[in-house]
């Protein structure tokens, strides 16, 4: 997204995505219609100002980075909270492996597959 630059007057799928990102953060982007209008411009400027970014209304690299907040830290997984996922990794990545994983946990795979 670092190469996607949006500003007032732009239209299209990326603007719709931007509006959806704002909505997901509880920020009113106006109507989600793919049009970068006055309401979205105001929301972008407020967001930029609140996050110590240049409040110019242009959604460029730094604004996208802050909005999407994808960092290495945010992608780390606490495996202690997902013990079943660590266990699943010990099985073959096939349908039979998944079936065995479920059976080993007492899950009747026939019910899941409609073969009961």
From TrEMBL:
Pfam families reported in the protein's UniProt record: PG_binding_1
Lineage top rank: taxon: Bacteria
InterPro entries assigned: Peptidoglycan-bd-like, PGBD-like_sf, PGBDSf
Domain Peptidoglycan binding-like: 13-67
Name of the molecule in the record: Peptidoglycan-binding protein
Organism of origin: Actinophytocola glycyrrhizae
